[in-house]
Amino acid sequence: MSDLWIEVDMDAIIHNYRQIMAGLSAGCRLMAVVKADAYGLGAAEVAGALQGEGCTAFAVTTISEALLLRNQGVDGTILVLGPSSPEYWQAAIQAHIELTVSQLDWIPTLNKLAETLGTKAGIQLKLETGMGRTGFTGDQLQELAAALREAPQLEITGVYTHFARGAQRDRAYTRAQNEKYLAYVQTLEQAGIRIPLKHVCNSAAYLDFPEYHYNMVRVGTLLIGHCPAPAFEGRLRLKDPWLVKARIVHLQKAAKGTFVGYQSIYKAKKDTTLAVVPVGYADGFGIEPRLVPQNIVDLAKIIVKNMGALMGIQLGREKLLCNGQPVRIAGKIGMQLTVLDVGSAPCSAGDEIVIPLRRTQANPRILRMYKKNGEIMRIRIINEGFLSPSEEQLSNKR
Ligand SMILES: *Cc1c(COP(=O)(O)O)cnc(C)c1O
């Protein structure tokens, strides 16, 4: 079916969820952030598994992500974190999806729409305290409270903000953001706004500022088994649910001096064997986020990495394993094919290679295989198996 696939270990995700729950402050709920297809693992699958564990609150970025979860049977709270366009609001309200409100002029429009639909619309307010992205600023709060008083169809379920430097060692900035948040919340409450849920923590702040848990935290990164910063390593015993594998689909002996791939940047230094695996840029392989150095050592590493890349050496990505033996990438990674110089490693066509592919970069088109207790429980295939149009359909088109 596919020679490239991702294995997602549901037991590891549930393990991570339980670890996070065990560290939650009393009276605090967990909102599972499953945006960006649960960081590549599969939003519906991850949310479904967490729902089975008792999780009743989920967050995504867009209304379409939220509708997908609803349609897949997620029935708790689903909050849209990002800004959204009015043309999608009706679908969201009808599916009982909560929208984040961060612009004043959305309030009367949303209120009117809810009234027309004969229902209430659940909303959360986003406050801008230092992320510089979306949210109400301090000088808008009185106007905000006034607009909300005129909007009886809007049901405010929570007020939140988002930290910019939670994963950095700069705790003062996060503290200042939190203080702003608390002051803004107080202003709103004094203006008569009732606020059931108060939340500020993402994964990093969940770990580093337990005193800011309040009555909800929004956690994504930890659920999928990733630690947001090296400094927090070991604070939770997380399991990695993510494994990408590709099969060797072509194997060929190559003489010393053979050029490999585009621009011939790789040349075999001795007689060897070249293996081809069906993974490349289109799948997200070899694509790295731009690195921002945090200190001088970081900067040196980034420079070396970039110099290596210029010379065709994929530093940090050479650790591919075939039958437990390291094999290296030969030449440039292609759109959907990559060549490996396997040397004298014992490799055969059909052997599995573990591919280092970043979770959030992995194309959703790659088949996902969900495992529970070591057994495959579900397979997700996107964009495969199109049917050809019939002769009749084609002649109608012409
Ligand atoms: C992504 C996101 C989160 C979750 O962040 P993690 O660090 O992945 O836990 C929380 N809140 C908002 C607003 C987000 O965009």
TrEMBL record:
Q: Which SUPFAM superfamilies match?
A: Alanine racemase C-terminal domain-like, PLP-binding barrel
Keyword Isomerase in the entry? The reply is yes
Q: Where does substrate bind?
A: 133, 335
Write the Enzyme Commission number(s) for this entry: 5.1.1.1
A Pfam family name for this chain?
Ala_racemase_N
Q: Name one GO cellular component term.
A: cytosol
User: Keywords in UniProt for this one?
Assistant: Isomerase, Pyridoxal phosphate
Q: Which GO terms describe its molecular function?
A: alanine racemase activity; pyridoxal phosphate binding
Name the coenzymes or cofactors required.
Answer: pyridoxal 5'-phosphate
Tell me where in this chain the PTM N6-(pyridoxal phosphate)lysine is found: 35
List the NCBIfam families. Answer: alr
Protein name in the entry: Alanine racemase
Q: From which source organism is this entry?
A: Dehalobacter restrictus
